[in-house]
């Protein structure tokens, strides 16, 4: 799943198509900017920082991006796609609660491997930009909506297969799971451990499991 990109594409800038080398240069600038903004925050990352880290001149940077806002928009698209690509690894074949637990293990495993350093790329950008940049907030909201939709679609497919009792609000459960995951990721960054993340995800998945039919519940792998 790829959300529509409203920023200048990697193939064209200002109506002009880029050469393969131009595409490579633009992508490198965006990747460098994304890494710096993840480490330092958007406001504390200057254009000069990005130029130095990418090894480019001011004219090169402004050839691809009209201003810092345009570069931030490209960073959001890159980070949003990176986050969803990881989620696809665990959610593309969400057919039962056991798959939710496997996705939970994936998320917690990634945080463990990172030693809980750094936050969710989308969450960090949202914290930096939501109150200062309305366009960026709307762009971030689309990416979070795409993540929510992955969970909703998975739970809806389980409901269609008759795994949930009548009246189960799978959309609300999906949103709760996304919110719990985001909160847990933030606290894992603050505390440098995954306790809050595992507690949050485990609690919501257990709540989802409470809505299973008797037959579906019997098929769940017990943890």
UniProtKB/TrEMBL annotation:
Pfam families for this protein: TetR_C_13 (PF16925), TetR_N (PF00440)
Domain of life: Bacteria
PROSITE patterns: HTH_TETR_2
DNA-binding region: 46-65
Keywords of this entry: DNA-binding, Transcription, Transcription regulation
Gene3D superfamilies in the record: Tetracycline Repressor, domain 2 (1.10.357.10)
InterPro entries: Homeodomain-like_sf (IPR009057), HTH_TetR (IPR001647), Tet_transcr_reg_TetR-rel_C_sf (IPR036271), TetR_C (IPR011075)
Statement: the UniProt record of this protein carries the keyword Transcription regulation: yes
UniProt keyword Ribonucleoprotein, yes or no: no
Residues in HTH tetR-type domain copies: 23-83
Protein name as annotated: TetR/AcrR family transcriptional regulator
Lineage: Bacteria, Bacillati, Actinomycetota, Actinomycetes, Mycobacteriales
């Amino acid at each position: 799943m790829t959300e529509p990109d409203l920023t200048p594409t990697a193939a064209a800038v200002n109506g002009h198509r880029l050469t393969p080398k131009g595409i490579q240069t633009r992508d490198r600038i965006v990747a460098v900017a994304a890494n710096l903004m993840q480490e330092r925050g958007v406001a504390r990352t200057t254009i000069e920082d990005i130029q130095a880290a990418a090894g480019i001149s001011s004219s090169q940077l402004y050839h691809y991006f009209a201003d810092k806002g345009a570069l931030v928009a490209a960073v959001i698209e890159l980070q949003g796609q990176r986050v969803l690509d990881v989620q696809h690894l665990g959610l593309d074949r969400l057919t039962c609660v056991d798959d939710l637990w496997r996705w939970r293990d994936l998320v917690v495993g990634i945080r463990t491997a990172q030693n809980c350093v750094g936050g969710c790329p989308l969450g960090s950008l949202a914290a930096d930009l939501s109150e200062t940049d309305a366009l960026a907030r709307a762009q971030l909201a689309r990416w979070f909506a795409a993540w929510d939709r992955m969970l909703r679609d998975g739970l809806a497919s389980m409901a269609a297969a008759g795994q949930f009792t009548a009246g189960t609000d799978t959309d609300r459960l999906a949103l709760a799971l996304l919110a719990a995951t985001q909160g847990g990721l933030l606290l894992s960054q603050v505390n440098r451990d995954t306790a809050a993340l595992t507690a949050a995800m485990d609690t919501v998945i257990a709540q989802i499991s409470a809505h299973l039919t008797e037959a579906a519940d019997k098929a769940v792998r017990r943890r």
